[in-house]
């Protein structure tokens, strides 16, 4: 998610507990579905007929999309409401669903949260409205993330393929080469901190979204979901072990700035050069421009470091979909707006206003790829970011209760960053908590 206000800067919101039980759920493969074989919506007729819909979203580029949409389709009124970011909105949405009143027609739902809402039948299966015809419209990572079972429960609004954002001035000052592998990254971290004990290659005090993205890039598949049958393996998963072995060394050698992301100290560290890089989603450039103006001309973008030399594997970090709640009374019009906002003119408008696209047409556009960024010293950063989107490792799955799991991450894995445990032990504790919660919610969970 790309945004310009510090209040909503995050690509993946901090998640709190959100219980979405299985009481109304028949199966994870047909949640909220009217049947994938239904005829697609006659969008032209729906828009000509007009009506009024309510959209809950915090992403700021949608404001211009709504204006353009209402201009093109004057019979339609779109009420765009920001009821909170991330989990604040999810809580409000779940409360409205439970009350059977005030449910919006469209809701922004981050990719990691889609399965949790889909499995509880809170979302409409959009394949019955025409989404199945959009195969190939979006890059593989986001498109995969809006699927649950055989259904499509949202349309990708943006994406967060990961890359290395680094302060070239700091790297040059200390004679450190830009790392191409994680082993080189570890050596670079040592060199920077040795040259200046106040400087670090990056910050990290424990973040669920970052951790799962890193495991994803390493080829890990610790979560396997088949309807309500869930397997969690954070102990034996090879990708998880690959990540923890390197990252534990960074923790043990105190090579990570003990600063929370999105804090004032975080911005100050990047401005002063004491936080020299970030491995993060492609939505980050606008945040650096607005939050770290002192870094203009100093920062650059490189491919995400690799677990194997010569590879080009990446993963997603953040990003959101637009979904249609199952309780919407105007689902066809809601879908028509959702398709407009995430494809064609709507997607282009959002890119022009700072969002990073999920649409293959925009990612492959020569105009997009060749654009030079003044902030990044004239570098054509979109070439690197678009290639990252194409190289996302396939096969990743989130838990159908990932919102809850992320909310207890710092109680378990987070303790490794303060010396209370190791990453491996913290991940084992996180697995145990997740298994217990999932079982209590009615899932069949196999550790």
TrEMBL record:
Keywords: Signal, Transport. It comes from the Bacteria. The keyword Signal applies. Belongs to the bacterial solute-binding protein 1 family. This is Sugar ABC transporter substrate-binding protein. It comes from Isoptericola hypogeus.
